[in-house]
Amino acid sequence: MSDTSLEELERRATERGQRPAYGHDALITCDRLVRVFTTDGVEVQALQGLDLLVTKGELMALVGASGSGKSTLMNILAGLDEPTAGAARVAGRDLLAMGAKERLAYRREVVGFVWQQTARNLMPFLTASQNVALPMQLRGGGRGRRARAERAERAAMLLDILEVADCADREPRQMSGGQQQRVAIAVALANEPSVLLADEPTGELDSATGEQIFAAFRAANERLGTTIVIVTHDQKVASEVRRTVAIRDGRTSSEVLRRTQVDAETGQESLVAREYATLDRAGRLQLPKEYTEALGMEHRVALDLEPDHIEIRPDDDTAGT
Ligand SMILES: Nc1ncnc2c1ncn2[C@@H]1O[C@H](COP(=O)(O)OP(=O)(O)OP(=O)(O)O)[C@@H](O)[C@H]1O
User: Fold this and answer.
1) Can you give the residue range of the structural domain that contains 245?
2) 199 closest CA partner among 229, 227, 224
3) Same-domain pairing of 151 and 205
4) Looking at the domain assignment, is residue 32 inside a domain?
5) Domain identity same for 243 and 320
6) Which atom, in ligand 1's list, is nearest to the CA of 45?
7) Which of the listed residues 48, 71, 200, 249 should we mutate to test ligand 1's pocket, taking the one with most ligand atoms within 8 A of CB?
8) Contact between 26 and 53 (Cβ < 8 Å)
9) What is the C-alpha separation between 119 and 122, in angstroms, rounded?
10) 249 C-alpha to center of ligand 1: Å?
């Protein structure tokens, strides 16, 4: 090896050392997140070193088979559960270092959540408007007439953005499931959270209503700039966001990015989707099952480094072990 290449390697190593920390500019950073559950002496590794970065202002979906770890991740991000190892930061808060008091403030002010069970999201004997005002009150809003008027005004503004202004004076039982879920989004947005988390928010609804709920999330994202993470089984919902991240066996495995492309000649807009695999911090890559199965790849694959890409081919060592 010549001196020049040694110098070059040293230069690259120094450059790497000066690089900012992983996820330094992301709103949500999950770094090698691990969550192990132990029940009756049996260990389940729900998260096995999950990496995820979410940028401020994103509206993204998390998808994955049942048991892949989606709800476990959402509960950690919601401040309801703690990871076994790894690091997780949301809006500058270290989720592993929070005390009970900070955790409560985090849940009230930094994150908002919408659950699948419509009934779990709202207080049954309060009107939509009172439901939205409640988190603001609990946060320590004043008791005076002015504070009350301000809360009512924000509640009205949120219900209007989510297109359920007509439900303001109705109790949950007087609303449809879709209306309840849109009011639930307003409740989650009441304290201007940095992040809105939604776990299967359209799970109990038919697909037309599900689309309305999704439109409500998009309105919240566009009009209020809130970062939104939605866990969904609904392929339609997943395909309407710019970024869908798939979780497999407790790790992020692949993601699909969609962008609008304008045809230079006709000026017609079309949505272009591209699939990416996630290269985790340890250099691990999960290849989509359809790809490996199509080429009969298992156990071992042949790797070659090319100037601008890496080639992965089926094991071609016929004399191999
Ligand atoms: N409190 C718990 N105690 C023991 N095991 C748990 C607990 N919570 C989750 N698990 C296990 O961890 C794994 C991941 O579960 P999780 O609920 O995160 O999956 P999911 O992707 O949300 O699934 P689904 O789509 O069915 O909701 C599963 O094997 C599950 O059985």
Assistant:
1) 56-77+98-286
2) 229
3) yes
4) no
5) no
6) 12
7) 71
8) yes
9) 6
10) 11
Question: 């946060």: which residue's tokens?
Answer: 139
Give this complex's ipTM: 0.95
Over residues 43-96, the pLDDT tens digits come to 999 999 999 999 999 999 999 888 999 999 999 999 999 999 999 999 999 999
- Centre of ligand 1 to C-alpha 254, Å, is 20
Q: Are residues 176 and 293 in the same domain?
A: no
- Give the pLDDT of residue 183: 95
Residue reference for tokens 């392929």: 235
- Ligand 1 centroid distance, CA of 70 (Å): 8
Tell me which residues have their CB closer than 6 angstroms to ligand 1. 37, 39, 44, 46, 64, 66-72
Ligand 1 centre distance from Cα of residue 286 (Å): 21
What residues form DSSP beta bridges with 89?
29, 94
Reading phi first (left if > 0) and then psi (alpha if -120 to 50, else beta), residue 305 is in: beta
Establish if 295 belongs to a structural domain.
Answer: yes
CATH number for 230: 3.40.50.300
Q: Which two tokens stand for residue 115?
A: 């659950």
Are residues 108 and 132 located together in one domain of the fold? yes
Atom 4 of ligand 1, nearest CA residue: 37
CB atoms within 10 A of CB 172: 22
Residue identifier of the C-alpha nearest atom 1 of ligand 1: 37
Asked whether residue 317 carries a pLDDT value surpassing 80, the answer given is no
Distance of CA 14 to the CA centre of its chain: 33
Q: Do the domain assignments include residue 4?
A: no
How many domains, in total, are found in the chain? 2
Residues 308, 239: one domain?
A: no
Pair 263, 296 in one domain? no
Closest residue by Cα to residue 247 from 96, 60, 24, 95:
60
29 found inside a domain = no
